[in-house]
Amino acid sequence: MSKKRGFFTQLIRHLIQFAAFILFPGLFIMVFSAVRDLLTAFMDGSFSFNGLFPQIILVFMVFLITMLWGRFFCGFLCSFGMIQELIFFFSKRIILKKVQIPKRFDYIMKFLKYVILVLITAGVWLLALPVDSSWNPWGVFGMLVSGNFSLVSSSIPTVGFALLLAIAAGSLFVERFFCRYLCPLGALLAVVSGKRLYKIRRQSDSCTNCGLCTRSCSMGIEIPENDAVVSRECIQCMQCLAICPKDSLSVNPAAAMAGTAAAAAIGGTVVVGNLASFSVTETVSQQPAVKIEKTKRGNYKDGVYMGIGEGFRGTTEVQVTVEDGYISDITVLSFLDDKEFFQKAQSAVINAILTEQTLDVSAVSGATFSSNSIMDAVADALGTSPEATEQPAGEESGSETGQPEEDKANGYDHPGTQGHGRGWRSGFGGGGHRGRQN
């Protein structure tokens, strides 16, 4: 490939990477979470085509493109991979001596990501072993790029942040350190891409075995060993084609065109999936009825109240209805988290609150932040906190809701006024969707 054509190919790839980072910075999390949702739904018998349509279409298209074209997702669309490329790019200009990874060590370490994939699938997804979400470096990365200062500050004192720093340190010396050795999604896509039709091919008659292609490969593949790059580690970044001085490496169709088509297909899938998902303002009363045991009058003052909780990209707003002292209905009026994450939490959390008549309920696995933002919004509407909702009405407070009299004297007569979220809980996502008020 000529230098001019190689430069153009890499320019196209980097532009697509930048666009993906701006539009879908958490796309790799969405794909991995969608795989989890489908697998766990099959295993527990709760699979629903309508309910899981966004996940189905996203996983189907990503897997189909990977089977035919290879791991374009990793090379063109993954923001986590792009950040590692940037770190390595700048490190080369600071650390002049290139670190040589022993081939045997590199070969063995690449199996580690498959071990991580198996542990996550079997342990966390299927056996539901308790794992603190703050350990997840992907989740911390999403919080750091959210632009939400409270989330950024809260993500720093976590195990996940420490792991993210370790990954960044590894990326100083090994290009795409996480992608090579640790990424569970990369392991899954590597399996899917094993029999891909689209391959980089080597012309042995013109190849001088100079090794430039291998040294430029971000995944450390020994390219001159075969007439075609058949390794599952190939992420179709095209760096080997761009650097080859003899144009001995080729693909058909052109690399930039294939990458653009793959990126557009996956990006369009995300948009279609979001448009096809159900309305964010669906009330719980429209779902299967929740039976509320009313042995005596409940703890709350009858009325309809508004509450706001701080989400990943902004606020989550809810309307809470109280009848006979019990929370009878919760309607989500608006939210700014990504639909895929928020919808996982919406039904489960609201039904749990209505059934148990407490805000101290479990968050939905994989949608912890969105679950907490709903709980915080309901707590704000009722003028209480999740930990305080078990208190009997008026006990040691002089008020029906258990709220101190000095708060009432200062005008905080909850429930009954529109409040603002305290921001100690947060949602996860970033689609920027606004619901309709019922």
Q: What is the count of β-strands?
A: 5
- What is the radius of gyration computed over CA atoms, rounded to a whole number of angstroms? 25 Å
H-E string:
HHHHHHHHHHHHEHHEHEEEHHH
Distance between the termini: 59 Å
Structural shape: elongated
Low-confidence stretches: 277-288, 386-438
Explain this structure.
The structure is a single chain. By secondary structure, this protein is mainly α. The protein has 2 domains: 3-131 and 174-276, no CATH class; 284-409, Sufe protein. Chain: A, CATH 3.90.1010. 49% of the residues lie in helices and 7% in strands. The chain is built from 18 helices and 5 strands. A 3-stranded antiparallel beta sheet has the order 3-4-5. A two-stranded antiparallel sheet has the order 1-2. The longest helix is centred in the middle third of the chain and has 22 residues, at 255-276. It is elongated, with a radius of gyration of 25 Å. The relative contact order is 0.12.
